[in-house]
């Protein structure tokens, strides 16, 4: 795997990167979105989760399901279904042969397949970097009621029927057979095994974004709106942003897929690699704000759109504040620092987390291409304007690049980095309590649930700690394949995805 690729996939698990507060229509114990609803905090209220398990004997293993290979996404669980990205190296349908990005919908009870969305690769004679071969769909979907909102490997935002084609082909989109077929081939027959697409919004075609490596976006759902980071990227040279005017954050109407609003920050020229950090939301002094980590290393807060706002011309999101996480870093000609491990611009890969009027986010040099300096920042979310000089409440240095989204519970914050370290920090003061060497880099995020901290590594080690101020290792279990995703808890079950297999542990 080329180094550039290895940067992208952690984003899927970021923070890149996945309590039981849920959307209307979902069961209270479901986890229908990556991370806690709105705030994006990687915590869960689930209890009675396993403290240990044995993959060989099957102890505490409810079921497992194959994902093929190169599956970097985290699952979501809603209304009896588990949805997770995969690839097509183990074809589940003889009609869909060859390389595809795949979104699987599995039965929560036993892991069997309900339906799949199989998406052929983008065809670009100049570069395979536009949609990297053999990589699974990396974006964790978001579910509300019987609707699934996701971003495909072709950088499309899609709305799907959670029931698939089992209850018929709902509209207005009716051309699923063409969507499944590679360019230049006849449409496929639509069967009960296929996804039912309600609408599609093609980001490269509609808003002019440029694709690179893979899409990662965990859609934030707020009332009638979907907030989506656009994954606008560099080109193959890593020296040029081909679409500098394309927005980094957009808003769609969830019912129709119509573009409602976009940011006006002109982040494009300052993007070091891509826009892979997904947005969060919180309420500050009765004002609802959307928090967004830019590919330029700046954390932004925008006013959330009012649910009753009429759909008219595309609006520009109103910025409330901006916080430059690395104000002394270069702001112009940022790609001159490509491969510079000592100095250069910063970027944000993990999701910002909103908690108690604060925003917590990991920031620093880009993985594999940028400087190694990285921090966890705590920002005062109650301010306005340019709060670079006034908004930092504390800063905690991490050892190496981080694409992780923090977990905050009972005054403690847990976060991991690619040096293979997990950190326990006082969420109020930034004081470090303990670290632990996990033995290999972490590309996913920690999960706090049932008084435990769960985290996996790229060597396949899955660690369980007590979620306490004093370090206590509860267990470490070796999986057969690397873990690049974030564990998820729902309905009394712990889900752990490796690059090849999804495990339901109970």
Number of strands: 35
Q: How many domains make up the 3D coordinates?
A: 1
Task: List low-confidence stretches.
Answer: 1-28
Strand content: 25-35%
- Please identify the top-level CATH class: Mainly Beta
Q: Can you summarize the main beta sheet? A: 5 strands, mixed
Query: What is the structural class?
Result: mainly beta
Q: How many individual helices?
A: 3
CATH-derived architecture: 7 Propeller
What is the topology, as strand order, of the major beta sheet? Answer: 1-29-30-31-32
Distance between the termini: 33 Å
CATH topology (fold) name: Methylamine Dehydrogenase, Chain H
CATH superfamily: YVTN repeat-like/Quinoprotein amine dehydrogenase
Amount of helix: under 10%
Q: If you average the pLDDT, what whole number results?
A: 92
Radius of gyration: 21 Å
Globular, elongated, flat, extended or rod-shaped: what is the shape? globular
Structure write-up:
There is one protein chain. This protein has three helices and 35 strands. The chain has 506 residues and is mainly beta. The chain has a single domain, classed as Methylamine Dehydrogenase, Chain H, CATH 2.130.10. The chain has a five-stranded mixed β-sheet, with no helix packed on it. A five-stranded mixed β-sheet has the order 11-12-13-14-18, with no helix packed on it. Strands 15-16-17-19-23 form a five-stranded mixed β-sheet, with no helix packed on it. It is globular and about 60 Å long.
